[in-house]
Amino acid sequence: MKKIDGHLHLVRSIAGFNGKGRLTPVGAGQAIWDDGTLIKLIPDGWGTDSFTAASALKVMDNNKIDKAVLLQGSLNGYQNYYSYQAIKKYPERFIGAFSVDPFTKSYMEITKRHVEKLGFRALKFEISEGGGMHGYHQTTPFRLDTDARIAKIFHYLSDFPGFTVTVDYGDFSQMSYQPEAITNLAQRYPQLDFVVCHLSFPDSNHLNRLENTLKQWQPLTNIYTDISAIQDIQGETNYPYPKCQKDVQLAKQILGAKRIIWGTDSPWSATFNSYHNLATWLEATDIFTSNELEDVMYNNALRVYFKASAVQAAKAAQDPVYKA
After folding, report:
1. Cβ count within 10 A of residue 17
2. Is the alpha carbon torsion for 275, 277, 280, 281 positive or negative?
3. Which of 193, 195, 273 is nearest to 229 (CA)?
4. pLDDT tier at 324 (50, 70, 90 boundaries)?
5. Structural domain spans, the chain
6. What gap in Å lies between CA 120 and CA 305, rounded to an integer?
7. Residue 293 in contact with residue 261, Cβ under 8 Å?
8. pLDDT at residue 313 greater than cutoff 80
9. What is the pLDDT at residue 310?
10. Residues with Cβ < 8 Å from 48, sequence gap 6 or more?
11. Superfamily holding 4-314
């Protein structure tokens, strides 16, 4: 069965920044936040201070993963240009999204450069309080569906039908949690596709909360969800993750298999559970039929993200900086 990892991060240079301050690499795959918190960011054997495209391809090949979607996040620091370079060098294996902080002065210039010059057709908003923009913009909380700066970005992106907007808004306890904003945006911009990361941070002990969110999204066919890192969120290491099975079963029941995208959120998530287990756990369950599993593991990500590959390939040929 073909597989696309729908949520992967490359880390050319660790440049994390969130509510804990800056993240500094210290070797052996570890890094330390300015507040003293030490984390294991990269699994053993994947890299000491980086997780490069070459390392990612080795992991993917060892686990029979055909392609991957490269996303950005504040944990690693935005790796926009390195992701672009990887996509250009390996267009048959990678596609990706860029990220921009709308509180920077040049946010629209940055957005236009990545769309018009570099050919990106996906944008990732990492807005969570725990790991994203709400962690370092505490005095200026914002909503994706009402903030004037972000509205300007959406109005611009609406000129590019089929553009994908991927969002991580954190869990229920965080000020950044805003599933209703996704509902509003999907109605307002029907020409865009929206992907919510991590199945809206589920809790198998509070499935009513997840059900309410998914039922908001159910009529809106331009909303998808990826199921990356739900093992970390549930604190599960017991393969094949019975709590996560409950979450995904509910998502299938309400959204259907064609709106669920498998992913891992590696490299960090692969420090809690092996990449092999993250890549095979759905096959060890009876949640999906064989045809549905092909959609979740490959077809959905191909349809939502890889529709942009021809655009990015054409832009690469025009870029004087890019070197394969």
Report:
1. 21
2. negative
3. 273
4. very low
5. 4-314
6. 10
7. no
8. no
9. 59
10. 25, 27, 28, 29, 42
11. Metal-dependent hydrolases (3.20.20.140)
